[in-house]
Amino acid sequence: xxxxLSYYLNQDVIFLAKDLLGKILFTEIxxxxxxxxxVETEAYFGVVDKASHAYGGRRTERTETLYGQGGVSYxxxxxxxxxxxxxVTSVEGEPHAVLVRAVEPLLGQEIMELRRKMxxxxxxxxxxxxxxxxxxxxxRNFNRKDLTENExxxxxHGIRFSPEEIxxxxxxxxxxxxxxxxLPWRFYVKxxxxxxKPRS
Length: 200
Description:
This protein is 13% helix and 29% strand. It is an alpha+beta fold. It has a single domain (5-189), classed as Methylpurine-DNA glycosylase (MPG) (3-methyladenine DNA Glycosylase, Chain A), CATH 3.10.300.10. Strands 1, 2, 3, 4, 5, 6, 7 and 8 form an eight-stranded antiparallel beta sheet that branches. A hairpin with a 3-residue loop joins strand 3 (73-78) and strand 4.
């Protein structure tokens, strides 16, 4: 049920960004488990993608995580406020990643409510990458975690969506990426209320 390491080594990050929709993202913190169904993602295509932290082969202490073998987490602070959770994919030296932008609460909703100070019935609890990470308790301590271990992991519960149920569009907040900002590499489940805006 837990996704194996081989899953993350797939070199097609666009495929994985779509395939991760419907998978379940789990965290265990101090014995408390929370989980949500992944309903929105974005693909980041390594050194050739102007929206990627690794564009042009950029290597810093922060981005080094992206260059490792797939199957680890890449968590960074955005605007000094929000922690964003990414799944590092592909083989060593190929810095692809999938940003998890939204989850639908599945387990530990009462814990999520405490973390987000709102009811889990409100989509805002886990809509958008910062909110999704906070609801699941993900912060910088989760950077470089092995996704096949027991602190943070992803499971396949057999939830599948047809091509008609998946919407593809431009990524959010990457206007600086020029023409790459228009690439349809944001994927989400059509009609799911936990998907961040804009949605069609």
